[in-house]
Write a structure and sequence with these properties.
By secondary structure, this protein is α/β, with parallel strands linked by helices. About 35% of the residues lie in helices and about 20% in strands. Strands 3-2-1-6-7-8-9 form a seven-stranded parallel β-sheet, with helices on both faces. A six-stranded parallel β-sheet has the order 12-11-10-13-14-15, sandwiched between helices.
């Protein structure tokens, strides 16, 4: 558990709380002596985001999310935010730094009227998409200026905040994580005279590009076993594709707890060919080298030539070449896995993430 504490009452707003966030919120709650209350609603059904039913030791208040429009025009309004703030009355409030969440402005105003601090938390502020990008940039800049501090998922996110004029002294970087410091490395079967084992973990949807992984593995000159862990709307289509071009693939469906850890211990290499995916950190914690497509920028903090490969999205050739490079030297691959494990142990775990949040909360309250 983190040593530093926030000696006060904290509130945290989220659009939704995925199940993978529960361990972090519980740890953050234990680090707040006055308690932590989390305010969040439900995702849209088509998003396939399982929500945690409770947060042991943390006050969990359900919002009603009103989802407006979709795609680049998506907006969300959360009813009940001000009632929650009146009841909980936090000394510091952490909110998603996303101007698309319309009720957030009222929450910031409420905290300001009480003379209390608000921290924004998010990926960053990448180039604005869609029509009127200049106007969107102005809206984002003005919205971010209302926070007392910002917490970014990555160094790239922090740089995007700085470019929009946020004071660098008020930006904190909490590497995105889903689990605590890892235990000892698993006793992995040596990669000798057997097919290499490649693992994917994530939701089976188009943006994860599991189809690109199957195409790349089908073109390898050496035999491999591919395990796809997860479920989603694309599963049947992907299973049919695998049967046609990569019959050494298996689809397990969603796995949790020890069953999921057993799959990480089974593998020699973890591959995420599409965007998103906190399973990268879990794979690294299990001592796996990783091949990851560049997405929101968080990957650049996690991956270097010492522990993996960053590749373009939607590039089967680049993916195949990275896999071939990885499997060409089993001894090097093992050392890269050890480096992944060390990175998670030192930097990318929820204990370190909690420490950064507590530091930010203490800083803004002092100010």
């Amino acid at each position: 558990m983190p040593n530093e504490q926030f000696t006060g009452r904290a509130g945290l707003q989220q659009r939704v709380i995925p199940t993978y966030r529960a361990p972090f919120f519980k740890m953050l709650g234990h680090a707040c002596s006055g308690g932590l209350s989390v305010f969040a609603g439900e995702a849209r059904p088509r998003e396939s985001i399982p929500s945690t039913p409770d947060l042991d030791g943390v006050d969990l208040v359900r919002a009603r999310n009103l989802h407006l429009f979709s795609g680049p025009a998506y907006l969300c309004y959360q009813t009940g935010l001000l009632r929650w703030l009146e009841r909980w009355s936090p000394e510091v409030l952490i909110m998603e730094a996303n101007p698309r969440y319309l009720s957030s402005r009222a929450g910031i105003t409420w905290m300001r009227q009480k003379g209390r601090a608000v921290i924004g938390w998010g990926l960053g502020a990448a180039g604005q998409q869609g029509p009127t990008p200049g106007l969107r940039r102005i809206v984002r800049r003005r919205f971010l200026a209302r926070f007392d501090a910002l917490i970014a998922y990555s160094e790239q996110g922090a740089e995007e905040f700085r470019i929009l004029g946020v004071n660098p002294e008020l930006i904190f970087v909490a590497g995105n994580a889903v689990s605590g410091p890892p235990t000892a490395l698993p006793d992995r079967e040596p990669l000798v005279e057997r097919p290499a084992r490649i693992l994917f973990v994530g939701r089976l949807q188009a943006r994860k590009r599991v189809d690109v992984l199957l195409e790349a593995c089908a073109q390898l000159t050496q035999p491999v076993a591919v395990r796809v862990v997860g479920d989603g709307l694309d599963r049947a289509k992907l299973e049919q594709m695998a049967g046609d071009i990569c019959p050494t693939s298996e689809f397990t469906g969603s796995l949790y707890d020890q069953a999921l850890q057993d799959s990480f211990a089974w593998a020699d290499l973890f591959v995420l060919p599409g965007t998103g995916g906190l399973a990268v950190q879990e794979a690294m914690a299990a001592g796996l080298p990783v091949i990851v497509a560049e997405g929101d920028g968080t990957e650049r903090d996690l991956i270097s030539a010492d522990n993996g490969w960053l590749i373009p999205v939607d590039d089967p050739v680049a993916l195949r070449m990275a896999i071939e490079s990885a499997l060409s030297d089993p001894a090097r691959l093992k050392q890269m896995g050890k480096r992944s494990h060390a990175l998670v142990l030192d930097r990318f775990n929820i204990e370190r993430m909690t420490e950064v949040f507590v530091q930010a909360m203490n800083r803004v309250r002092e100010r």
